[in-house]
Amino acid sequence: MKKVSNRLYLARKIFDYTVVLILILLLLFIWQLYRGPIAVPFLKPYIIAALNQDNENAEVTVDSVNIELVRSIKPIKIIAKNVVYEENDGHMRINAPGVAVSFSIRALLQGVIAPSSIEVNNPSVYIFTDYGVRDKNRAAEVSRKQIDYYVTAFEEFLERFNSPDRTYSESYINDIEINNGKVEFHEVDLGRKWEFADLNYNFERNLTDIETEISGSVKLRDKLVSVGMEARYRPSDNRLAAQIYFSDLVPADIVDTYVNGGARRDWYNVNLPINGKIAALINFNEFLKNRGDLIEAVDTALEKIKFQLEGGRGFILFDTGDADSRYDISSFMLEGEINGGLDRVAIENADFYLGEQKVTLGFNVSGLEDYLLEDSKKNLRLSLTADIRKLKFDDLYTYWPRYVAPDAWEWCRDSIFGGDAKNARFEFDFGYDEKTKTFGLTDLKGKAYIADSNLRYINTMPMVNNVYGVFSVTPTSINIALDKAVSDGIMLSEGNVLIYDLDKYNNYIDIRLFSNSSIADALKLIDHKPLEFTSQMGLHPEVIEGEADTELGLKFELKKDLDYDDVNVTVNSKLHNVRIKDAVDGRPITAKELELAVDNDGMSVKGDAEFDGIPLKIVWDERFKTDKPYRSRYQASLKLDAAGAEKFGLDYEMLKPPYFEGSAEVEATATQGGDDKLTVDLKAKLQKAVMNYSFLGFYKPAGAAADFGAKLVFAKKQLTSIPDFKLHKSDFDIAGKISFDKKGAVRVVDIGKIKGPKTQAGAKIEMPSGKNGVVKINISGDSYDLSEFFDRGKNSSAAAGEAENDWEKTPDVDVNIAVNRLWTNPDVSVTGFAGSARLRNGVGVHEVHMIGNYDHNRSMNLKVDYVPRPNGEWLLSVSSNHAGNTLRFLRIYNDMHGGNLQIEAKKGADGEFIGHAKIRDFSLHNTPLLARLLTVASFSGMVDMLTGEGMTFSHFDAPFKYKNRILSVKSGKTYGNVVGLTFSGAYNTANEDISIKGMIAPAYGLNTLIGRIPLVGSLLAGKDGTVFAANYSITGKASDPKVRLNPLSVLSPNSLKDAVSSVFGGEDDKF
Fold this sequence. Notes:
This protein is α+β, with helices and mostly antiparallel strands.
């Protein structure tokens, strides 16, 4: 063992005893501290100096200074009791029951008394600020002053706590701890106070940064809200990272407590607890750089802001005066980030729970700087999106701001309900309106797919169920586009409900519903109140078959107690395969397609239809309002013949053969007023018709243009009169009126105008009242042309037998004519004519009487009588002293002039005429048949005479028979001073077939040789002085006959005399 020197041993002993002494003293010190604080009054001035180096602006008082034992990491502390810090200007006062202070060794080494650590427990802090605001209601001024105040305060904090040369004692402080503090923060010039309780503050200086943390409770509306802030300042780049957090913060409490009344109107009442944190990175270099432009400074200094917010159960009230603007919120969560300044905020996918309903929100806000710092809303823009995957459709009314359009909101709530809304998305844009100088909703877009909803558009109309479609909304309108739905059993293929003018005082709705259904169901639909269209049209849905593609349109103002006139209604329908049962006399009307249009004023139906095999175009117009000139109007265009007329109930003889054949293009317009009176305006194009009213002088063949017009008046579905009718062709006009009896039968046809080239007259036709009555026709006037009447046979294509029977088919008719001049052909007229005829059905012409003269010369007269006799016989007598005119007038023969005529005949029960015709002293001119015969016989001189001055005859005798339009003659003869003929044969007047044979010979004087007469001899004698005579035959058509000649023999003059005398008779054969 090494021996230790005495000196070293003594030093070790002294050290040992010193340590033991120190430990004994330390134990005594601890024992004493454990018994209670140890007063160290000598430290009091040092404590005051450490807490207040700026003794000119503030004053610190301390009651005592003790060393105490505490339960802490540092159990022994120097504690100043009842410390009071008060600034001389009264802006701050701190009362602390105890302040623990540790002194900075570094500061002591530099001769500075400065604390290294400060701990304050249970202090009461009173802060009074004055921002220098002149008008606390000017938010922009308040914001600017506040920002400037706090930026300045932070600069002062950095100067005192982070000065490089440690000029201030605060620069030596490494940590500050404040526990359970109570703070009152008074904003004097704003007139408000913030109260904090349980405030805890911690300040800690690190090697590269400074950290600070504060937490506590703020009093809002007598409720304590937990708030806190953590901040870290990095001196190297002069940036501050701060995070503020809070819990159970109700924004409405802040607004009510600290926002002035005038500015409070700009804030919605958000009354729900919010938990969250807001983190910000602030570059204070930008504040220093742009200190003169506060907006620019804030915009550049705030480099990044992040926030996370979540809320609990509560509500948002958009209008404090309207309880319906309240929205209950069960929870929500927001996350967002702001980069590059405070001017724009963007939030995406924020989840809100409105009750049990989840809503995903997105926010985009711009123009915040001008609003927060300048109190200017001009550039403030807010865009909000809300996405809802699925919700009950009725819940839309919970979230729809009712105050935006209260009438539309109420109508939709009552009228559109039930079902679900899917994939809903709503976009709200808010901005500043220069006109109204207000901030509000500028645009709104929303869309949702609805399923299985219901639509009740008018209470009395059937509800629309099972609605599927798209719901969309704009600031001025709400629209529901229906994909499919059902109403009263009718499938709706599509539709649209548009509510518009939401930005105006009065809101309106436009509804369009499209359906495919039976016609009966469609008519039932539009017969509900207030429409009742089907009833007003007088329709019975059950009698109408077919399908209908219908568009129902309704427009009306959104108001209560709608009247019929308040609803603007339109119905457009295409009707397919239509069949209206029992339309006319139990027979249907059918149509492949019709168009139906209905509105408030009336209804229109048009299209191509068919009635009992008759095609027709129809237009039906019905008026509902009494102020219109008519109630109903029916228009029809059709091709009508006699059979068709009968199908329409027009069973009149005058519309049947022989009077009317063929068809007419008819346009009929029927108009009905408020009473039961129905007026029909009838127009007809008659080009394809054959019209034979020859007893009126009117005949029209097929192909000739003609028009007919009439006005028909019906009462109680019965034709009562035709006050006006007109019949026109190129050279002929008939106009008149027709009256009917109580049973709807024609009574009188009063034709006031019959005007043609040779007609100026009137007629009156009186129809019989019973089936066996007689039609009476009376014609009178200046002149009357019956040429068409006598052309009837000529224009008829019927066979001979049928033609004869035409007259027998005629109903019983009595005709009386009294005119100054009567024409039967273009060349001859009878003047002073009076005549009558009776036609009987089954008989034909029953009786005729005619009398007249020619050229008003009574010496030239005509008389015709055709009278019945017993046993079914009739006697015919025709006499005239101007045979040529009479035969032309009777349309028998046109080439005779002069002469005396006498015809006597009898018609038997078999319908055959047997009679004898005599004519004396007449001449023939331009007779083609005779000219053909003379030409064949080589009587060239006679031909010249016939075509020139005429050939005279002294006698004509013809026994005849007539039946079935065939005229038969046996042993007829005619002769004159030039030639004589005998003839026998037949002529068919229907087809102009002719078959005649006879002898032609020259006519000599009875006692003189013809050859010796100078003139006659030169005409008749041959070269040898003999006379030529021959047999002839004529066959074929009268217009182109075949003539054959057979010479008899060469006769001596005496023999010829006997032959001629036997053929032509003697001179005493006269009348």
